[in-house]
Amino acid sequence: MQLADMKWPDVAALDKNTPVIIPVAALEQHGLHMPVFTDSLLTNELIRRIELEAGSRVLITPLMWFGNSHHHMEFPGTLSAEPRLYIDLLNNLLENLIAHGFKRLIIFNGHGGNDTPGKQSVFETRQKHRDRRDLLLLFVTYWNLGAEPWTIDTTINQQVMGHACEWETSMVLRIRPELVGDLSKVRDVPFGNPFEPASRGWIMTDRSEPGHVGDPRTASPEKGETLFASFTAAALGLINRACAWNGQSWDG
Predict the structure, then answer these.
(1) Would the CA dihedral through 78, 82, 86, 89 be positive or negative?
(2) H helix runs in 4-78, sequence order
(3) What's the Rg (C-alpha) of the chain?
(4) Three-state DSSP class for 25?
(5) pLDDT of residue 126
(6) What is the DSSP string of 140-203?
(7) What CA–CA distance (Å, rounded) separates 230 from 235?
(8) pLDDT digits over 89-113, tens only?
(9) Under a CB-based contact definition with an 8 Å cutoff, are residues 86 and 68 in contact?
(10) Span 3-244: which CATH code?
């Protein structure tokens, strides 16, 4: 169910244990060959597929395209919220839905830069409602839900998400091929080892002059379909767990 298509009495009548999915993404540079709306395009497509399978079991809010992308600000076209502002935006979305009685809220993320502030948001909102045992506040990034698309299509080279990489380029080739530039003119930008397992502060120009990370030359629409199917199945697995949650336990 799409919240944007509903009238308020219909929203009021919903079972408040219905999981609410809040899609979030970004508008930021994606190298020389990909559109700035890549993350939002891909997240919207995943949400479309999730809705086809989940139907009325979930309520879906409109995608929030304004993300935390300050590490890309050296590249024109990037639009970004300050990290604290972004946390507060997410907190407000959660608070609005809690005020309307909803209890199972899932921020569904499609941009890596949203990961840290998104986790902070669900943490902060939970602290504000310490007396509630019936709230399930989740932040999830779709490629971190356990999908292993490279085991389905062994020609997929990557096993982690990059940026405007084989994965993202393949998925855009699957749904909007006219937006992808000439892949013969791009090169491999290795992932490297940024002092792992430490978490390094970085901006994109520390890693990549053209703005992508990975090797988009190996992308294909066929790989894109495998990736979409794998990520959708993993997301549905989490949604099923949220639907089945007993309303108070730690495990789910």
Answers:
(1) negative
(2) 8-12, 38-54
(3) 18
(4) coil
(5) 98
(6) EEGGGSS--GGGTSTT---SS--BSSHHHHHHHHHH-GGG---GGG---B----SSTTS-----
(7) 9
(8) 999 999 999 999 999 999 999 999 9
(9) yes
(10) 3.40.50.10310
